[in-house]
Structure formats: structure tokens, C-alpha cells
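We store chain and fold; example below:
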Amino acid sequence: QPWAIGEVLPTAVANSSLTAGDLIFSMVLICGLYTLFLVAELFLMFKFARLGPSSLKTGRYHFEQSSTTTQPAR
């Protein structure tokens, strides 16, 4: 098998100069970054789920508190 990509990239050129340590470092860094993204996403998701849909202030839910209270006419 002289070609990594047929007639385009020979196998002698297709190898990487990175060491195993470089690869492990990159993978740990990427996994750590995605773990931070997961923690931030879970934090925000639980925060807004705890507040409930009325925190959106859309007025579509019967249990939303109205900012203007109606007083009976006198």
C-alpha cells in the first residue's frame, strides 16, 4: 500500500510528527473543555427549569403574576 490517498498522498508523507504525549495532552484538553461546556449547560438548564415558564413573562400561563393589579370599580 504505497498511497494513503490513492495517487495523491504517499504513506511516507501521511504520518504525523506529533508524539503520543502531544496527542494525550490535546485529548485531555478537549475533553476538559467539553466537560466545562456540559457543566455550564446543566447549570443553566436547571436554573431556568427551577424558575419555570412564568419567568419568561410571556403572559401565556394562568399562574403568571400580573404586574398591574386590577382594582374593582367604585
In short: The chain has a mean pLDDT of 84.
